[in-house]
């Protein structure tokens, strides 16, 4: 593992991608804004009516005025509720649509990642991005974006209404605005790192506790109790410090915002009384403005909460967009192979720069031959297999089919030429047919059954409750490792490549089952070039040629009998295997 991390998009790149996403979805935004604005305006009717009522009653109006005001009030509330219902629905659909696009783009980017990048970055980072980061973004996009929108519209509409109704009263609010802005900015600048530190501290603490519980016997046996206790204490201290820090932020934020919110009505009432005494405004206007000011407290709190969440989500978005920044490891040249001959010329490969594990391998595969690759563990057999399968571009030299470097072919074409089967077989959640159609989406049911036949899997498939339509994978019918391997091989039959690389493909089966599968595979393998990377030497014995890989080089190559009589490495390997 070279440990190269997946990239993280920087602030400007993340903002650019986010802005593009918002622009692509700007149409529904207009509808939502219009609906919420009308709803907010309907919500402003109440305080306005109360204000007017106060003035009319002071002027000695009759009870009929109150009835009329009550009727309008109720109508406005009903209208607001209906509008909010539709606006909320639209906003949730909007958030959902945007999140769906984000998720699809992310899945596209992840599935397009070069395998070498995934391997060198480790799957942990990618899993973290697909789970934690997607969750955080989901929360902010689904709920946050619509709520922020509503909060901003409500605040702006209320302030504008207040200024229109009685600017001379509202202007005094300017005094409290700076406190709200300063406190919010102070908090938002510290909240994200603060809460991130807190989650990291709890993750570490959980890790330590889980490890200690799971490894209790080892800890006991090696007398590591004190070390574990010290570690736990350090983790607890960090969690405590992190909690204390965020608590301090909240102890500044809460009074920091509550003070201007509480001061506002006092200032308004004092200022209003002064204006009323000079006849510059009415009791009703002051009442309306005080009620408006109380109405924006909720949205301001909500705005601060969501801006904080959105800041955290932006960090996660940077990690999601970062996956798109990985350069592809191959560029399609468009040149077509002239024949089906696979060849490697002076192929070198290094997982880590400067540490070659293949040192210039020349190999001509003869069409239709069966080549067994044998050698000690770590010699580079699997790496050579991956070069021949075009999984990684070689660091030096070239692996070609029909004169075209394998990595210059589009992936779909490449798999029609050369395919690799390893011992890791993943069963995807879905039907057995879905699992097989990964190789060829257009394959008919007959073709699927034919492929299963070829790998001797029909007996057990036919006994499944729904045959090839049976749900398999997690939550469905559990395939045994041997069955999963047969499914992988059946996929290969569907791909129909002229060259196959079997990297210990039958090693999970017990020797008898392996031989049976290999025998049934025989029919499928006929006419194809097969490179079998093998531990069991009987595979080598049955092959047309054997290549011995040692220290990243082919030390011997030739037919079994020839190598045995030459008395070299292979002969020694063969004799020792036979005497086992
Ligand atoms: P085995 O029979 O044990 O599977 P092998 O002959 O197939 O061994 P390779 O798996 O090709 O050997 O490994 C060749 C060398 O490359 C080894 O030293 C191994 O440690 C290293 N190597 C293999 N895969 C990676 C990887 N993903 N990252 C870094 N080094 C690797």
UniProtKB/TrEMBL annotation:
The principal location of this protein is membrane
Report membrane topology.
Multi-pass membrane protein
Q: Which Gene3D superfamilies match?
A: ABC transporter type 1, transmembrane domain, P-loop containing nucleotide triphosphate hydrolases
Where in the numbering of this chain does the ABC transmembrane type-1 domain appear? 30-311
Alphabetical UniProt keywords: ATP-binding, Membrane, Nucleotide-binding, Transmembrane, Transmembrane helix
SUPFAM superfamilies in the record: ABC transporter transmembrane region (SSF90123), P-loop containing nucleoside triphosphate hydrolases (SSF52540)
In this chain the ABC transporter domain maps to 342-576
One Gene Ontology molecular-function label: ATP binding
Q: What residues form the membrane-spanning segments?
A: 29-51, 57-84, 148-165, 171-188, 260-280
**Pfam families the record matches:** ABC_membrane, ABC_tran
InterPro entries in the record, alphabetically?
Answer: AAA+_ATPase, ABC1_TM_dom, ABC1_TM_sf, ABC_transporter-like_ATP-bd, P-loop_NTPase, Type_1_exporter
Cell compartment(s), UniProt = Cell membrane
**Which PANTHER family does the UniProt entry name for this protein?**
ATP-BINDING CASSETTE SUB-FAMILY B MEMBER 10, MITOCHONDRIAL (PTHR43394:SF1), ATP-DEPENDENT PERMEASE MDL1, MITOCHONDRIAL (PTHR43394)
- What protein name applies here? ABC transporter ATP-binding protein
């Amino acid at each position: 593992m070279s440990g190269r991390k997946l990239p993280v998009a920087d602030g400007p790149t993340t903002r650019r991608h986010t802005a593009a996403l918002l622009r692509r979805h700007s149409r529904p935004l207009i509808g939502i804004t219009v609906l919420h604005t009308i709803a907010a305006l309907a919500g402003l009717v109440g305080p306005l009516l109360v204000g007017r009522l106060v003035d009319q009653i002071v002027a000695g109006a009759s009870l009929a005025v109150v009835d009329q005001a009550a009727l309008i009030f109720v109508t406005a509330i009903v209208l607001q509720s209906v509008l909010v219902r539709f606006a909320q629905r639209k906003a949730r659909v909007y958030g959902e649509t945007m999140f769906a696009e984000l998720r699809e783009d992310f899945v596209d980017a992840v599935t397009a990642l070069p395998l070498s990048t995934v391997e060198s970055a480790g799957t942990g980072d990618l899993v973290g991005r697909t789970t934690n980061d997607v969750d955080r973004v989901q929360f902010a996009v689904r709920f946050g974006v619509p709520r922020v929108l509503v909060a901003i519209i409500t605040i702006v509409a209320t302030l504008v209404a207040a200024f229109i109704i009685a600017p001379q009263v509202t202007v005094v609010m300017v005094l409290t605005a700076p406190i709200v802005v300063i406190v919010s900015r102070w908090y938002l600048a510290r909240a994200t790192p603060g809460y991130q530190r807190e989650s990291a501290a709890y993750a570490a603490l959980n890790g330590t506790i889980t490890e200690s519980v799971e490894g209790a016997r080892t800890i006991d046996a090696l007398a590591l109790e004190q070390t574990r206790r010290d570690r736990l204490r350090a983790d607890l201290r960090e969690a405590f410090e992190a909690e204390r820090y965020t608590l301090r932020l909240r102890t500044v934020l809460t009074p920091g915002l509550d003070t201007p919110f509480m001061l506002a009505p006092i200032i308004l009432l004092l200022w209003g009384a002064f204006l009323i005494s000079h006849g510059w405004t009415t009791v009703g206007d002051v009442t309306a403005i005080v009620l408006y000011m109380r109405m924006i407290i909720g949205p301001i709190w909500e705005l601060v909460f969501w801006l904080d969440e959105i800041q955290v989500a932006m960090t996660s978005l940077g990690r999601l967009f970062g996956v798109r920044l990985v350069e592809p490891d191959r560029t399609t040249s468009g040149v077509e192979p002239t024949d089906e001959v696979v060849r490697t010329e002076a192929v070198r490969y290094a997982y880590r720069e400067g540490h070659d594990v293949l040192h210039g391998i020349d190999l001509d595969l003869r069409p239709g031959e069966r080549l067994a690759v044998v050698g000690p563990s770590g010699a580079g057999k699997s790496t050579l297999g991956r070069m021949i399968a075009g999984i990684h571009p070689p660091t030096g030299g070239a692996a070609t089919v029909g004169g075209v470097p394998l990595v210059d072919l589009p992936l779909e074409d490449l798999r029609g030429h050369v395919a690799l089967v390893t011992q890791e077989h993943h069963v995807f959640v879905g039907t057995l047919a879905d699992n097989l159609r990964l190789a060829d989406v257009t394959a008919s049911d007959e073709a699927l059954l034919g492929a299963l036949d070829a790998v001797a899997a029909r007996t057990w498939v036919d006994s499944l409750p729904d045959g090839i339509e049976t749900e398999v994978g997690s939550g469905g019918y559990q395939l045994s490792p041997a069955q999963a391997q047969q499914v992988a091989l059946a996929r290969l039959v569907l791909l129909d490549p002229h060259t196959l690389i079997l990297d210990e493909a039958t090693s999970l089966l017990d020797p008898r089952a392996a031989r049976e599968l290999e025998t049934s595979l025989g029919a499928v393998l006929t006419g194809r070039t097969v490179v079998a990377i093998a531990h069991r030497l009987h595979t080598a014995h049955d092959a047309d040629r054997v290549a011995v890989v040692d220290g990243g080089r082919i030390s011997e190559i030739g037919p079994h009998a020839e190598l045995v009589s030459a008395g070299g490495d292979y002969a020694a390997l063969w004799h020792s295997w036979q005497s086992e």
